[in-house]
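Hey, I'm writing a tutorial for new members on how sequence and structure tokens pair up, and I'd like a real worked example in the thread rather than a made-up one. If someone can provide the structure for the chain below, I'll link this post from the tutorial.
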Amino acid sequence: LRAVVGTAVYLIGISLIGLALGVLTRSTAAGISTLVAIVLIVPLFAGLLLPESFDTALQFLPSNAAQAMTGSSASSQTAELLSPGAGAAVFAAWVLISLGGAAVAFVRRDA
């Protein structure tokens, strides 16, 4: 059940982060490109290029936090992932911070 609900929350959260990035950049293409970079490209290359001492910091990227949140069993949790509760909290922080930044930018420049 946690995997199903976590996946639904992940998809909603990613779409909200994309919406916030679109508002911040005022461009659909730039928002989508930034979202793809944050979710897919940065975790891949950061894991490959950075030394192992940065593995703790990489846990807090949105895709890694969501992976911890959507894990289906305790055996699937590895040492490099957060706990499911911590992953949900980190992912919620990413969503709230991006929406907060978009709201502030929208009020200051568009209202």
